[in-house]
Amino acid sequence: MTDSVHATPDDSMLVRIRGLTTVLGGKTIFSDLDMDIPRGKITAIMGPSGTGKTTLLKHITGQMRADAGEIVVDGQNVAELSREKLYKMREGIGYLFQNSALLTDFDVFENVAFPLRQHTQLPEVLIRNLVLLKLQAVGLRGAAALMPSELSGGMARRVALARAIVFDPMLILYDEPFVGLDPVALNQVLKLIRTLNQTLGITSVLVAHELAAIRQIAHHVFLIANGKVVAQGDPKTIADDGSPWTRQFFGGEADGPVPFQYPAGDYAQALGFAGAAK
Amino acid sequence: MNQRMPQDNNVVIQSLTQIGNCGLFLLTLLAAIPRSLRYIRETIRQLWFVGAMSLTIIMVCGLFVGMVLMLQLYHVLSIFGGTSASGMVVALSVYRELGPVVTALLFAGRAGTSITAEIGLMRATDQIDAMELMAVDPIAYVATPRFLAGLIAMPLLTCVFCAMAILGGHLVGVTWLGIDNGTFWSNMTAEVDLHTDIVNGVLFKSLAFGAVVSLIAVFQGFATPPTSEGVARATTRTVVASSIAILALDFVLTAFLM
Known about the structure:
The complex is a heterodimer of chains A (about 280) and B (about 260). Chain A contains 11 helices and 10 strands. With about 280 residues, chain A is of the alpha/beta class. With about 260 residues, chain B is mainly alpha-helical. The model of chain B is unreliable at about 1-5 (pLDDT under 50). Chains A and B meet through helix 2 and helix 3 of A and helix 6 of B.
């Protein structure tokens, strides 16, 4: 059976979410959601499309304000932070976007160097070495002079990953990091996430759908649906949990607690067969 | 008629909301100027894009506006035997109205649309969000340098436009139609007043137009929905809103400065 959804406050938790409620355009995204993300671990957030996984990451970074509830990151209540303090907190957070979000005016090298140039006064030689070190880690040192438009989707994602880790942040948020990667690149990214976690103790939060990949690296998995955490635990436990939620999500079943079809009227009537049916 | 009323009201409310939001955005922009001073290199880069890159269109258009103005004036003034004053009238028309207004309209079409489309695409591709998450203030790094660049570039471009228009007038009037060169320049220098025509006409108006066009372009870029249709609409809105604002503001400024 899944662990208790309501975890107790603990200093070992880097991110603590309590009673998170978010309503967007009249639709309830989160309803009294609680979540604890442990320090120095790899945590995966999974769930059907449209359940607010990316929105949850935006709450953690302070990009979106919740309608109710509390989000505490490294002891700081995000909603109460001033602009300066929020930016200071973000310097310690790396974020990998779904679509990479590279700055199109700059080449690969300058994209990775961008956070260093903005927040440090490091000499050029040191910036160069740090950037090449990170690019080497993602296997793209040779692509340093390329422009973002010259990169494939997978390469752009790896450059974005190099940029996200250039500051060796305390927390990295990965939004769908495995989409569009070939098996070689996917394995390298998996290895990189694991290495960053094991060697530097960086806390990682992954939003992903690839259970096989998650099983290899994640210490803890949260399954979100209907605005709440419906199951949590280590990857093996949660996959074998047997609850209707996990059975539908990990079994890929159309029928279950989460309807595959978006709410709609009668299908036959929509096709004009209503009369024929009678 | 009754059916159209709610829609019309909606358009009015939407327009007023846009103006209000634009005003609030201006305050945010002004508040970010001290923070944007550390991005002085970005401001210079933008000055190159919106200023130097607009030079060709401004120079060519200025030349032709001066030429056609001289041609029209020569034919009208020749009826009264006053062709010797045509150089002076060209100069006054260009300094007081045509220079600042046409430069601003061209600037809105050339640089304003480019600023809106660039920022809109940055939003659509999450680049603005990425900056936020890298703890870089996008207002200070993206918006303010473009606003300041437009503010600085407009008076300079207006001066270039005016110079080219006078040159165009001289080419047609003196070289082609045979007006005396000395009369052309002496009438002009005698009638053009530094304060009324150059400071109020060229500099003051062009600064005001530069601020308005740049503000509208940057605001539309940030307010655009992050879709391809949204960017297209925002670009169109920049041209339409800037053109109306320039002509309306020109009337107000002329009424106060005359």
